[in-house]
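Section 3.1 - Work completed
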Amino acid sequence: MAIKNFSRQALVVCMLALGAVHSAWAVEPFTIKDIRVEGLQRVEPGTVFGSIPVKVGDTYGDEKGAASIRALFGLGLFKDVRIDVKGDVVVVVVEERPTIAEVDFVGTKEFDKDVLKKALREIGLMDGRPYDKALVDRAEQELKRQYINRSMYAAEVMTTVTPIERNRVNLSFSVVEGESAKIGEIRIVGNKAFSEKTLKGLMDQDEGTWLSWYTKSNRYSRAKLNGDLETLRSHYLSQGYLEFKVTSTQVAISPNKQDISITINVSEGEKFTVSKISLQGNYLGKDDEFKALVSIQAGAPYNADKVAQTTKAFTDHFGDFGYAFARVEAVPTIDRSNNLVELTLQAEPSRRVYVRRINVAGNDRTRDEVIRREFRQMEAAWYDGDKIRASRSRVDRLGFFKDVSLDTQEVAGSPDQVDLTVNVEEKPTGSISLGAGLSSGEGFGLTFGFKQDNAFGTGSSLGLEVNTSKYNRTLVISTTDPYFTEDGVSRTFDLYQRTSRPYTDVDSYSVETMGVGIRFGIPIAEADTIFLGLGYDKTAINQGTYLPDVYSNFIGEFGQTAYALPITLGWARDTRDSALVPSRGRVMRVNGEWSVGGDLRYARATTQFQQFYPISKKTTAAFNFELAAGASTNSNSYPVFKNYYSGGLGSVRGFEQGSLTTAAQRAAYGSTAGLATGGAKKITLNAEILSPFPGGGNDRTLRWYGFWDIGGIYGADEGINAGDMRSSVGLGISWISPVGPLRLAFAKPIRQFENDKIQTMQFQIGTSF
């Protein structure tokens, strides 16, 4: 259609040009005294005068007339152009193309309108541009292509052009989307070593499950199919099938454009064993260092993953010495008669280079300095692969970006220089946390939190936490400047108010705590940070009905209001591969608090250890251990409101949040359900197995998990006794939702005590364990 329109337009231009030439032949050449333009509405006269190859004082002839018409048509602004000669005056008469006033879409449910407008802008169709039928036809094809990319082959697009005042038109693209084409069958032909079910389980695309409405895994995509073919190839090569090939792929669509059948033909070849590994080339005299990096084993089946791991380790190690363009290749020598392969690792370090300039790209919101200050590779310094990898990891751990990549470019004319470009893809850095629990005692309790980790693109964070429970109300405001000093010392301010009113009676007692704190984070190593802080606490116990003995005793010892001046000290290390969906690595934290002034003198400390193990490509085992203890540092008692609490999400699931009691509390309350006032010691152990949700394919954002929790709470004078621990087991769902990671847990206590407060279903957004 677009070709036909272009041909007609070209024919019209030629005929008009010939007409102009014929008209010019009827006029003897003359000197132009004046040039006038008629028919303009929005186009500036200067555009016409600047485009035609004649001006006042020139000699006008047939060639210049034809050239003028061609030049004006070439602008794309006019649908008709002619030149009249009146004496020695040249009159250019034009008819402007209508201008597109508005582009709208009707019936588009699959796409946001802004996405479609952006796609049309890329081909030149947008508001304010001249209307061109050929361009509109091209726009229709582009819209269909967008739908085909989402397996909607039956989509139809129709265009309505509505003329409006001032020679403008409105364009409306009406779309009948139809149903998405679904993959009805996937067949793998030629496989012998692995079953078809096993191979199909490795693919992201499938024939549809009960969860396909969410994962869209049964929607055909050529890009996804190519990825699945690479996954199959990688699987075979990692299992020793060195000569595996995908010989052909057939994709068939049904006549109604609703069903797709995929057939993948493979040739497995033979399974090969590595007979020998040798090194060739220039290894900078450090052959032993490079040999230590070899992860391939002689006598083991050929494994392409380990070959790639080894060559990458070699390349990275060359980069540690400044050789950014080192070439490492694993050359196989195949003995097909014995199914053996000998690998020769050939290396050429090329030349040593230094970094001339570091560029930052893609940060529309985040300031350059926020990214640059995380870099350990400096400009004008020798290229250091280890520092560059550390720099990329530090930028990624900021949590401000979906993707962080580094490109190395040679500097033209300077073979010993390179430029580094940090490419980042920003993501929303504001997060909302929401937690709730339903119990017969407290009813529905809600916690809410807001945090902006990259406020105004500065890298600083601002947080707000609110608890709206009718028994416990909390307001916490905090802000952190991660680079309070140029060398990376962070500063955090905290302001908080917490009110606990365990009973709804107007005259019941309540406990109110207000405080402010400041702490600094001091990096002592690449992955280690220590924290120092100082705080001020004021706690008031407002007497009323139902006042527990522990609070009465506190008032008798310290009075209704008590003050504390705590110093905090901590250390943290985080080596997880992902903060949201970790599969390997660990987290270690130690935090201490020591009150050195005020009415209260005490010390308390918490240590936490988390470990993540990849059981398989899809399944992860996670373990959490937390131990906390506090004690008085003078002859007075340990303050009751500095107690630790246990129960609920983050500790022992299946029990109401913070409801676990000590042995002494249970003995004091007897057969009645007493108030949980925490304990001076706490221990928690959690174990989880996480795997993609059934029907979710390889989607790691939606997973189910099984868990086993153990935990206990103890008084200041009690020892940690395993017999006083509660325990629970259960199943849960973990979902990386648009507002943050959500966890839903269904727990069943397997060890509990009389009058424990049970809460079998709990959920929270923004937590782990």
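Second construct:
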Amino acid sequence: MLILGAAQAHAQTADTSVHHDSAPTVAQDRAPAQSAAQNDEAAMGNDIVVTAQKREQRISDVPMSITALNAENLELIGGTELSKVSAITPGFVIQLQDKFAPGFSIRGITSNDFQPQAELRVALFQDGVPVTQATASYTELFDIDRIEVERGPQSTLHGRSALNGGVSIYQKRAGDTLGFEGKIAGGNYNYWSAQGVVNLPLSDTLAIRVGALARKRDGFVSDAQFDRTYNAVNAQAYRFAARWTPADDFEMNLIATYDRDDTRGGVPFKSRTFLPLNQTTGAIIGDLNFWTPTHLDTFGTFREPLFTRDIVNISSTMDWRLSDKFSITSISGFRWADALQTGDNDGTPTNMIAYEQNNFGYQVSEELRLNFSDVGPFQGFVGASFFRADNGMDFDLGYDERAMALLLGGTLQTLAPRGLTNAQINAILGPAAAALKPFHIDRQITRAKINTYDIFGDVTADVTARLQVFAGGRVTFDKKEASTQGLLPLGPSRLTGRGLLLQPTPNGAVLTGENDSTTVTGRAGLRYTLARDVNVYAVYGLGKRPEVVQVLNTGAQIIPAESLESAEAGIKARALGGRLSGDLSVYHYKYSNFQTLGTVNGTIGTINAGKAKATGVEAQLSYTPVNGIRLFGSYGWNKARFENGIYDGNRFRNSPDNKYAIGADFYADLGSGRVSFAPLYSWQSKMFFDDNNDRSDLQVRTPASFSDKVVDEYQGAFGLLSARLSFTGDRDRWSFALVGDNLTDEKFIVDAGNTGDNFGIPTFIAGTRRTYRAEFGVKF
């Protein structure tokens, strides 16, 4: 249930006649400021409308755990990042080391697999189009209508491996009112942004909407030698929407988006084993804290640390109303993405290991659905869909063989914390240094083609005036083709006579594999109305992640389908004329064939960790005690553990046991507008970044110097405080706001381990620091 929406002045009206899911117009008029209190009283009975079950429903009537935020909610919490949405959503965690490698976790199940043939466990959708590549999943939140986060198995409703939940992002559609919105902002870390949106009705049947955004910010970790920072932002976003209604029974909405990133600096991988050294003088230029300056760089033929990305998403939704009871919906999608990242992943200024990774691909999809309602006691849909993707990844690891000689031999690790410069390494090696290459490349080229066909349906029956039962199922036919090629562009390593960390395929051949699979998912449950605004529900769901073909240097292997059986029960209630609303749910699920990353025949690959289970509780609450005060909060408890194998008893990675958020909006109407102060505090408990939980017994390696003897690859419990102070002028014509995030300047990490962990020298990536900005906006 929406944790803010019951208190928002712009939530959609919660009556029994739900309107079409179109976006509000740009310059939607509000009542004058002097009557704002009357508007707030009217808003107390509002209840946001969502389409989680592929039909428009009040969120309080949807029998599942769901959080939805509309544009006003996002503005209230300063939600320019999807990570801010996760902060207030129980059971939803985003591990954001950068936009290239985000990890989305719902109820402990994480998706951040970058292999071209991989399927996300947490499905993402942009305007109904599935987002299946992790490197293209985290984009700019700009001109958003609403965001829905659905928890629990959603494969029946959404497919595309919505194994344990889904996140749907909807852009605003073109509206009927001429208008313009603009906003500029500036803040610390040289932050600035500018955006504008125009809504233009061209005729009685055609309207368009055009918007653009530019946003730039320095990174939170600075370079000790160069004029650059790490994890900076330099993004542009463009939006186009068109709505065509040639007849009363037909509507077409086209939404096209283009996102571009072009950032210097890369990811702030930082070693807490070796101090950063000036490579010319040997002087220490920093410390081992993950948030302080360092110097990271690539070498050889690799480009300087950077991140570039282009994403195009096109969605066309057509709705035909055949009669009062039947309608047809078609959603056609196209998505293209190309992302490149280079960086220094040993975390030190010494040239040891660097990388270049390029992920790219395109996809097309089509969903055709027959919707029905009031057919006797039944309502629901049946349909079919098609999805095709061609994806690729080119991954290069580059090494200085002279540094690797000491690292692979275990000598360098014993010299911590000072370590050595490259010149000192060469001096230790003596004449042997001349026989080693200053730059060696291991290259891995992977490709995948995915073809998927789905047949699905979901039906709800009104058994009595109070009792509804529902059931649905989806059959998915998958065909995957994958290939891998391992190359040594600069010849074999002089250290090993082959590759170093990535091995070549025999004679550089392209190894292929393919697999056909069929998966069946489903759900069944009931909803019972205890009172007019009190509903209880229970649902059983079966989610699956289809089989994946993995091609290693030793040949192809089939990664078995992951399966999740989930049972959930909950209650949703509204009271006091809508001033109080909330929900509570409990769940338990069992997981089979849990796939995680590990070493397979000397190569990093997917391994089967076996069985797992989780039990949890989630709650959300929104309360307006008096006019001028709105309170909201959420809480999630999730005990997710492995049940067998070497990880028995371990926690899931990126999965805190406890997580909560509390916030408020204190507002007052003045003669010329409204002033508002909205603080938000979010907290989460300890979280590991690897399924091995950094256990010492799982870090034992040969030689012994490779063993990581310190248990530090986790983030302890921490909380973040943010706030927004704003003044909105009469009729929303202009606004001014001060926004601050992480106001206490909490120092935390968003990832640990990484490539260096294989040699006992893990790296750590810093999270966001204290930021503040001023925003000025206009509407007319």
